[in-house]
Amino acid sequence: MAIAEPPRRITIDLDSYLELLIEKDVFDADSWPEGMRAGAELLRRIREIEQQCVAEHGQFHCDHLAPGVEDDYLSAVSALERLIEPDDDLIPWEEFKVQLHQQSQRPQ
Question: Is residue 9 part of a domain?
Answer without folding.
Answer: no
